[in-house]
Please model this.
Amino acid sequence: MTTRTPEQRHLLEQVQQIAEGLGRSLAPFCEVIVNDLLDADRAVVAIHNNLSGRAVGDPATELGLARIADPAMPQVLANYPNRFPDGRPCKGTSVGIRDSHGNYVAALCLNMDLTPVHAAQALLAQFGNTDGSAPVAESLAPAGATAIRQHIDGFAARHGTTARALKADARRALLRELKDAGLTDMRRAMETVAAHLGVSRATVYKDFNFGGTA
Model:
Protein backbone atom coordinates (compact mmCIF):
# COMPACT_ATOMS: atom_id res chain seq x y z
CA MET A 1 0.00 0.00 0.00
CA THR A 2 1.33 3.44 -0.93
CA THR A 3 2.58 5.47 2.04
CA ARG A 4 1.45 9.10 2.09
CA THR A 5 2.24 11.95 4.41
CA PRO A 6 -0.63 13.60 6.33
CA GLU A 7 -0.31 16.57 4.00
CA GLN A 8 -0.62 14.38 0.89
CA ARG A 9 -3.68 12.59 2.30
CA HIS A 10 -5.26 15.95 3.09
CA LEU A 11 -4.61 17.27 -0.41
CA LEU A 12 -6.13 14.19 -2.01
CA GLU A 13 -9.23 14.45 0.17
CA GLN A 14 -9.69 18.12 -0.66
CA VAL A 15 -9.29 17.55 -4.39
CA GLN A 16 -12.03 14.92 -4.23
CA GLN A 17 -14.37 17.46 -2.62
CA ILE A 18 -13.57 19.98 -5.36
CA ALA A 19 -14.21 17.32 -8.02
CA GLU A 20 -17.61 16.49 -6.56
CA GLY A 21 -18.62 20.17 -6.65
CA LEU A 22 -17.40 20.61 -10.22
CA GLY A 23 -19.14 17.40 -11.26
CA ARG A 24 -22.47 18.62 -9.94
CA SER A 25 -22.05 22.05 -11.53
CA LEU A 26 -20.91 20.83 -14.95
CA ALA A 27 -23.22 17.80 -15.34
CA PRO A 28 -23.95 16.15 -17.67
CA PHE A 29 -21.51 17.32 -20.33
CA CYS A 30 -18.25 17.38 -18.38
CA GLU A 31 -16.55 14.37 -16.84
CA VAL A 32 -14.49 15.13 -13.72
CA ILE A 33 -11.82 12.67 -12.57
CA VAL A 34 -9.40 12.67 -9.64
CA ASN A 35 -6.17 10.75 -10.17
CA ASP A 36 -3.94 9.71 -7.27
CA LEU A 37 -0.47 10.15 -8.76
CA LEU A 38 1.16 8.31 -5.86
CA ASP A 39 -0.51 5.07 -6.98
CA ALA A 40 -0.26 4.92 -10.77
CA ASP A 41 -1.62 1.38 -11.04
CA ARG A 42 -4.88 2.39 -9.32
CA ALA A 43 -4.83 6.09 -10.01
CA VAL A 44 -8.53 6.85 -10.47
CA VAL A 45 -10.05 7.52 -7.03
CA ALA A 46 -13.13 9.48 -8.09
CA ILE A 47 -15.13 10.00 -11.27
CA HIS A 48 -18.22 12.13 -11.82
CA ASN A 49 -20.44 12.27 -14.94
CA ASN A 50 -18.71 9.24 -16.41
CA LEU A 51 -18.35 9.79 -20.15
CA SER A 52 -15.15 7.88 -20.89
CA GLY A 53 -16.09 4.49 -19.43
CA ARG A 54 -13.22 4.62 -16.95
CA ALA A 55 -13.74 3.37 -13.40
CA VAL A 56 -12.39 3.86 -9.90
CA GLY A 57 -9.25 1.77 -9.58
CA ASP A 58 -8.17 2.19 -13.21
CA PRO A 59 -4.52 3.04 -13.88
CA ALA A 60 -3.14 6.45 -14.77
CA THR A 61 -3.28 7.62 -18.39
CA GLU A 62 -0.25 8.65 -20.43
CA LEU A 63 -0.63 12.21 -19.17
CA GLY A 64 -0.73 11.06 -15.56
CA LEU A 65 2.36 8.92 -16.05
CA ALA A 66 4.11 11.88 -17.66
CA ARG A 67 3.37 14.02 -14.60
CA ILE A 68 4.73 11.32 -12.32
CA ALA A 69 7.89 11.01 -14.39
CA ASP A 70 8.49 14.75 -14.80
CA PRO A 71 7.86 17.06 -11.81
CA ALA A 72 8.70 19.99 -14.09
CA MET A 73 5.61 19.42 -16.23
CA PRO A 74 3.31 22.49 -16.23
CA GLN A 75 0.78 22.38 -13.42
CA VAL A 76 -2.12 23.41 -15.66
CA LEU A 77 -2.73 21.95 -19.12
CA ALA A 78 -5.94 23.43 -20.47
CA ASN A 79 -8.21 22.95 -23.47
CA TYR A 80 -6.30 20.22 -25.27
CA PRO A 81 -8.19 18.16 -27.88
CA ASN A 82 -9.08 14.56 -27.14
CA ARG A 83 -11.68 11.90 -27.96
CA PHE A 84 -13.74 9.51 -25.87
CA PRO A 85 -13.40 5.79 -26.72
CA ASP A 86 -16.58 5.90 -28.82
CA GLY A 87 -15.21 8.67 -31.03
CA ARG A 88 -16.96 11.68 -29.51
CA PRO A 89 -14.73 14.77 -29.48
CA CYS A 90 -13.90 16.29 -26.12
CA LYS A 91 -11.83 19.08 -24.64
CA GLY A 92 -9.51 18.18 -21.80
CA THR A 93 -8.03 20.12 -18.90
CA SER A 94 -5.64 18.66 -16.34
CA VAL A 95 -4.57 20.42 -13.15
CA GLY A 96 -1.71 18.91 -11.21
CA ILE A 97 -1.76 19.15 -7.41
CA ARG A 98 1.63 19.48 -5.67
CA ASP A 99 2.56 19.08 -2.04
CA SER A 100 4.74 21.56 -0.15
CA HIS A 101 7.87 19.81 -1.49
CA GLY A 102 6.79 20.31 -5.12
CA ASN A 103 5.89 16.66 -5.74
CA TYR A 104 2.79 15.84 -7.76
CA VAL A 105 0.26 14.17 -5.49
CA ALA A 106 -2.89 14.21 -7.60
CA ALA A 107 -4.42 15.48 -10.82
CA LEU A 108 -7.86 16.97 -11.32
CA CYS A 109 -9.01 16.25 -14.86
CA LEU A 110 -11.98 17.62 -16.78
CA ASN A 111 -13.16 16.09 -20.07
CA MET A 112 -15.90 18.13 -21.74
CA ASP A 113 -18.10 16.49 -24.37
CA LEU A 114 -18.08 18.73 -27.44
CA THR A 115 -20.87 16.87 -29.23
CA PRO A 116 -23.62 19.33 -28.16
CA VAL A 117 -21.35 22.24 -29.09
CA HIS A 118 -20.74 20.81 -32.55
CA ALA A 119 -24.49 20.18 -32.93
CA ALA A 120 -25.18 23.82 -32.05
CA GLN A 121 -22.52 24.94 -34.50
CA ALA A 122 -24.15 22.81 -37.20
CA LEU A 123 -27.52 24.39 -36.40
CA LEU A 124 -26.08 27.89 -36.70
CA ALA A 125 -24.38 26.92 -39.94
CA GLN A 126 -27.75 25.77 -41.27
CA PHE A 127 -29.21 29.22 -40.60
CA GLY A 128 -26.34 30.79 -42.52
CA ASN A 129 -26.65 28.42 -45.46
CA THR A 130 -26.70 29.99 -48.94
CA ASP A 131 -28.42 28.50 -51.97
CA GLY A 132 -26.25 29.46 -54.90
CA SER A 133 -24.63 27.74 -57.84
CA ALA A 134 -21.12 27.54 -59.22
CA PRO A 135 -19.98 27.11 -62.84
CA VAL A 136 -17.86 24.11 -61.85
CA ALA A 137 -19.08 21.29 -59.63
CA GLU A 138 -16.77 20.38 -56.80
CA SER A 139 -16.87 18.39 -53.58
CA LEU A 140 -15.37 19.57 -50.32
CA ALA A 141 -16.77 16.66 -48.33
CA PRO A 142 -14.34 15.07 -45.86
CA ALA A 143 -13.55 11.40 -46.15
CA GLY A 144 -14.00 8.44 -43.86
CA ALA A 145 -15.43 8.40 -40.36
CA THR A 146 -15.22 12.19 -40.10
CA ALA A 147 -17.63 12.57 -43.01
CA ILE A 148 -20.10 10.18 -41.37
CA ARG A 149 -19.96 11.97 -38.03
CA GLN A 150 -20.39 15.38 -39.64
CA HIS A 151 -23.34 14.17 -41.71
CA ILE A 152 -24.99 12.75 -38.58
CA ASP A 153 -24.47 15.98 -36.64
CA GLY A 154 -25.88 18.00 -39.51
CA PHE A 155 -28.94 15.73 -39.75
CA ALA A 156 -29.55 16.04 -35.99
CA ALA A 157 -29.18 19.82 -36.15
CA ARG A 158 -31.78 20.05 -38.92
CA HIS A 159 -34.15 18.15 -36.64
CA GLY A 160 -33.42 20.39 -33.66
CA THR A 161 -31.78 17.70 -31.55
CA THR A 162 -28.50 15.86 -30.98
CA ALA A 163 -27.24 12.66 -32.56
CA ARG A 164 -27.74 10.63 -29.39
CA ALA A 165 -31.32 11.83 -28.96
CA LEU A 166 -32.52 10.65 -32.38
CA LYS A 167 -35.49 8.26 -32.23
CA ALA A 168 -35.88 5.14 -34.34
CA ASP A 169 -37.81 6.81 -37.21
CA ALA A 170 -35.25 9.60 -37.42
CA ARG A 171 -32.37 7.11 -37.35
CA ARG A 172 -33.92 5.24 -40.29
CA ALA A 173 -34.26 8.48 -42.25
CA LEU A 174 -30.65 9.30 -41.36
CA LEU A 175 -29.44 5.94 -42.61
CA ARG A 176 -31.27 6.47 -45.90
CA GLU A 177 -29.43 9.78 -46.27
CA LEU A 178 -26.11 8.15 -45.44
CA LYS A 179 -26.72 5.45 -48.03
CA ASP A 180 -27.75 7.98 -50.70
CA ALA A 181 -24.54 9.87 -49.96
CA GLY A 182 -22.52 6.68 -50.35
CA LEU A 183 -21.31 6.84 -46.75
CA THR A 184 -22.62 3.42 -45.69
CA ASP A 185 -20.26 1.79 -48.18
CA MET A 186 -17.21 2.97 -46.27
CA ARG A 187 -15.14 0.58 -44.21
CA ARG A 188 -16.57 0.12 -40.68
CA ALA A 189 -19.32 2.63 -41.48
CA MET A 190 -21.91 0.95 -39.27
CA GLU A 191 -19.52 0.86 -36.31
CA THR A 192 -18.89 4.58 -36.71
CA VAL A 193 -22.63 5.31 -36.95
CA ALA A 194 -23.40 3.18 -33.89
CA ALA A 195 -20.69 4.81 -31.78
CA HIS A 196 -21.76 8.35 -32.72
CA LEU A 197 -25.46 7.62 -32.09
CA GLY A 198 -24.71 5.83 -28.83
CA VAL A 199 -26.54 2.64 -29.86
CA SER A 200 -25.44 -0.90 -30.65
CA ARG A 201 -24.38 -2.06 -34.10
CA ALA A 202 -27.32 -4.46 -34.02
CA THR A 203 -29.69 -1.51 -33.61
CA VAL A 204 -28.08 0.31 -36.54
CA TYR A 205 -28.35 -2.75 -38.81
CA LYS A 206 -31.98 -3.22 -37.74
CA ASP A 207 -32.82 0.42 -38.55
CA PHE A 208 -30.88 0.17 -41.81
CA ASN A 209 -32.82 -2.89 -42.96
CA PHE A 210 -36.18 -1.72 -41.61
CA GLY A 211 -35.93 1.44 -43.64
CA GLY A 212 -35.61 -0.58 -46.83
CA THR A 213 -32.12 0.69 -47.53
CA ALA A 214 -30.36 -2.66 -47.67
User: Anything to note?
Assistant: Helices lie at 6-26, 62-69, 115-127, 144-158, 168-180, 189-197, 201-210. Strands lie at 30-36, 44-48, 76-83, 89-98, 104-113. Residues 194 and 202 are 9 Å apart (CA to CA). The mean pLDDT is 89.
